[in-house]
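Subject line: Sequence and fold of a protein, written as structure tokens
Enclosed: The protein record, placed directly beneath this head.
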Amino acid sequence: MSRRTSHPRRTSAARTRPAPAAVITAASPCPCGLPAEYAACCGRLHAGAAAPTCEALMRSRYAAFAVRDAAYLLHTWHPDTRPDILDLDPGTRWERLEILGTTEGSAFHATGTVTFRAYFKDNGRADSLYEKSRFVRHGGAWVYESAVDTD
């Protein structure tokens, strides 16, 4: 997931006050939508455990957007496509992830895709991001490579 805003930037005087980030604790429901606590789900990946599948990595990357963990997002991004910095918009609040499909991406594969819709609010306005993401193995670990053109 490579969230880049498609909305024109407003001047700071025109911006609305961003919604406070949701407080996610170890015992909170995981933002990725699986029925587990954050610490037992994506939190363990954010702490350094390897994602076993590309879907698990996708979910953990979504959760990293939700908890604003830019370091994890950069770490799990392929070095050939990774930006130098990642500026997460404080006015964006990630609300729900819907996995629409996957191809390959298990322990027995070198590549995989995850198609998803991520729901968010941008300065209070509801929106969503639809993407088919490509994941590859790099150094033995799953990493996000790029969005796949679905046309």
